[in-house]
Structures are given as C-alpha cells and as structure tokens.
Amino acid sequence: MTHEAGWAHAPGALRGPSWLREPHDPNALVEHLWPAGARKVDGELHVGGLPVADVVADVNTPAYLLDEHDFRSRARAFRDAFADWDVFYAGKAFLCTAVARWIQEEGLCLDVCSDGELTVALRGGVDPARIGYHGNNKTMGELRRALAAGVGRIIVDSFDEIERLVTLTGDAVSQGTPTARARVMVRVTAGVEAHTHEYIATAHEDQKFGFSISNGQAFDAVRRVLDAPGLELLGLHSHIGSQIFDSAGFEVATRRVLALHARVADELGATLPEMDLGGGFGIAYTTQDDPATPARLAEEMRAIVEHECRALGIAAPHLSIEPGRAIVGPAMCTVYTVGTVKPVQLDGGAVRTYVSVDGGMSDNIRTALYDADYSCTLANRPSDAAPVLARVVGKHCEAGDIVVKDEFLPGDVRPGDLLAVPATGAYCRSMASNYNHALRPPVVAVRDGVARVVVRRETVDDLLATDLGDQA
After folding, report:
1. What digits encode the pLDDT tens for the residues 307-334?
2. How many degrees, rounded to 5, is the angle at CA 128 between CA 125 and CA 131?
3. Cβ(147)–Cβ(232) below 8 Å
4. Residue 148: CB partners within 8 Å, gap ≥ 6?
5. Domain harbouring 218, CATH code
C-alpha cells in the first residue's frame, strides 16, 4: 500500500531494504567489504596496521585511506589469474602518481582516457608502450600528445577520430618527421544489456561509446582503419558496463565480437592479433553483493573464448581485460566525522535517524548519481548500544546528498564520532568536486603501520587560484 506522502511515510516502512539485516554486534566488520588487513581492535577500526583515528588526527576528515598492500595484492591476483592475457588497470577508477607506480611495479598495463590521466601515468613512470588511451571525443591535441608519447594503443571510438589520426600521421610524414604508425583498436558495441545501472551499461546500442556491430558500423570502421596508411589495427575492443557480477553478458558479447573478428579475416583478409573484452567486474559494497574472484573470472572467460573460437574454427587472438574498480575499490575507505544526529518523526510513528557527516556528495557522488548502496561502521570506539537504522548524509545543500542510504549503527552514535565507509576506492576521489566550494579530501596510503599522504587535501588557496576576480 502506497502512502500519499511517499513510501518512507508508510507505517512500518523504515525496516530498510530486504537484504539488510540487523547485526548481532554493530561493532563487528563485514570483512569482505573492507581491505584484507582491516580489523576492529577494542572497537576501533584499524587499516594498514594503524588506528584510523590516529591517521585522520594528522590530516583531518573527510579523508580517503588507501591500503597499499591490499591494492597491490588485488593487482597481482588479476595479473596471475590472467597470466597469458594483458591486464590494463582502468585509471579512471582512481589514479595518482603513486598508484601509477604501483601498477608499473606489479606488471600491469594502464588505461587512461584524458591528457591529464596520461600526464599522471607518465609522471608515475609507466612505460608508454603499456598505456591504452580511451575516450569517445579525443581532440587533435590529445591524439597528437598520445602519438608523441608513444602510447601502446589508442582505442578509436568514432569515424571523426579515425580521420584525425589519419591527418596526424600524414602530417608527420609530410613534415619530414615521420612518427610511428598509430596502433589502434576499434571499440565496438555488441548490443548487450548488462545487468547494471543504465548510466554504466555501455554495450547496448543507444549510448555514446563505440561502433555498432549490428548495423555494420563496426565493420566499416575496421575497413577504414585497415585502408589508412598511417594506422595499424591491433584488434577489436568491447566493454559491456560496470559493476557486473554475471558472466552471461560477457558470453554474449564475446560471441558477437569474435564473429566480427572472423568476418574481418574472411572478407577483408586481415587476421587481427588482439582483442580486449573490457572490465566492469563488480565488487562488494554491501552484504547483498557477491563478486567473483579473479581466478573464477579467468576460468569462466577463458572457457567462453575457447568455446566460441572452436565454434568459429579460428585461433584465439591475444586477449586483454581492464579491471579498475575490482582492484582499487575495496582497497580504500573514507573516514568522516559525525556533526549532527537528528531523529525525524514520520507519519505512522516511524522514526528515521539522520547522521550528518563532514563530507558528502562532493567526495562520493555515486549514491546520488547511481543510487548506489554503501555500508559504514563506527570507527573510533566500541559501543554496547542497541543498533538503530540510520541514514548517513552529507553537509551539502541538497536533499539527495546521501552517503549511506540505510545502515544499522549503534544507537549512541554522537557528534565527534568517526564513521568509516568501505569500498570507496573507485570513482569517489576521481569524481570528487568542489560543490559548495568544498575542499577535496586527501588520499592517505597506509602500509605496515606507516601512513603517508599521496594526494594532499586541497586548500583555500587552491580554491581561489583559478578565481581571477573582477578584472574589468
């Protein structure tokens, strides 16, 4: 039955989502949501061998804590599970020079999708030959820079981009300074509806990325690249979306992309050496999520490729994948300070407890943008209080400024407490903003009982540096 003022006002509505269970011990961690080394010690959350209260005492809150050991171990898990594939870390999930260096040291490749990300990757010491360049609207300047840097592959996304690369490689030859041929992959859309949010499903037809296989656009793009004197076609690229747990989508997409791969060989006489099946592997944000391990993903994806190649009678190309969220997401948590606790009486006697923290949608836009679910825990002390269903909200002037929609917290949560939100490594700092002129938080790497700031907190001077005032 729907209440005229909305579902939240209906009697008994505030029980939370069906998957959320009241904990027996609100002090306990749901371990698979956190970095592998996270634990509670006498009620206090420790990450990387340090109490988070000690870490944030030096940098204030909100702050992102990145467990270096956890990040590296997840990177190695993908590298080892996909040992005969190339693993490209998707830098858009989170990238800084320290992370770029870790990726290089762990033997992974790196995806970038802007000149800024390329700059950070190069500054972090990544071999440009191990960099892939994404983006649906790369400018002439960005492509020129990518070619000059010697990136290993450019994933072309439009006919305009193909023409830009033809122009750039032709100009270099005509000026007597020939550059290496542009090594490209053609991004295709396989018409797959991945089981994820509409805004992060990227392989269906009605969206901005890639060339459609079904309407012949992808085949035409391949033909144009093969006919272009300055371009070297490595293969096809497919990405079906993000936060995906079901391999069925990969199976359908792989079948269609390999069919195009075989058609290119049959009709155009070109055996493409590579193929990229993208990323989008999901992680656990709450107890409802059950992500696959890299080993299981590798087993399933190898089986899919082998089956489809046998059916087509072709040899498998050299393959690559692009995990980002699955590596950095669980390795990071965000720590906030509670500012206010407000029980709100609703119709029918229901009460919603609003716990306001000192960050919000400026440091984690995903709840507002994607209706994403998160968990959290009281991080600075133990509590014997019975749990209450709470909503953790930010300090911004938006009703939709929600960090955690529903979570059980100790009933004595109070101003000054620390709350920690797990699984915030992917897209939280990357998509952070200065909304309401907030200062973006620092990223603190923790390892073996040592904390070091790898991205500092913005200052008011940073905020004002681009404000030139009234110079009329």
Report:
1. 999 999 999 999 999 999 999 999 999 9
2. 105
3. no
4. 179
5. 3.20.20.10
Which residue's entry shows tokens 């993000």?
242
| Long-range CB contact pairs, 2-11, < 8 A, 24+ | 3/347, 3/348, 5/347, 8/346, 8/350, 8/352, 9/346, 9/347, 9/348, 9/350, 10/348, 11/347, 11/348, 11/349, 11/350
State the total domains in the chain: 2
Helices (H) and strands (E) counted in the chain, each on its own, are 12, 21
Residues 242 and 293 reside in one and the same domain: yes
Q: How confident is the model at residue 348 (pLDDT cuts 50, 70, 90)?
A: confident
Is the same domain home to 189 and 106?
yes
- Residue 464 placed within a domain: no
DSSP one-letter code for 290: -
**If you average pLDDT over residues 103-118, what whole number do you get?**
98
Catalytic residue among 96, 109, 376, 397: 397
- The per-residue pLDDT for 364 is 98
Domain of 39? 7-67+330-458
The yes-or-no verdict on residue 341 having pLDDT over 50 is yes
On whether the CB atoms of residues 441 and 63 are closer than 8 A, the answer is: yes
Contact by Cβ (8 Å): 315, 258? no
* Residue that is written with structure tokens 């959350």 in the block: 45
Lowest mean pLDDT among 10-24, 203-217, 242-256: 10-24
* Domain contains 470: no
80, 192: one domain = yes
For residue 336, what pLDDT is reported? Answer: 98
Tokens of 188: 């295709």
- So what's the pLDDT on residue 196? 47
Q: Quick one: tokens of 73?
A: 């171990």
Active site residue 397: yes
Angle ∠(235,237,243) on CA atoms, nearest 5: 160
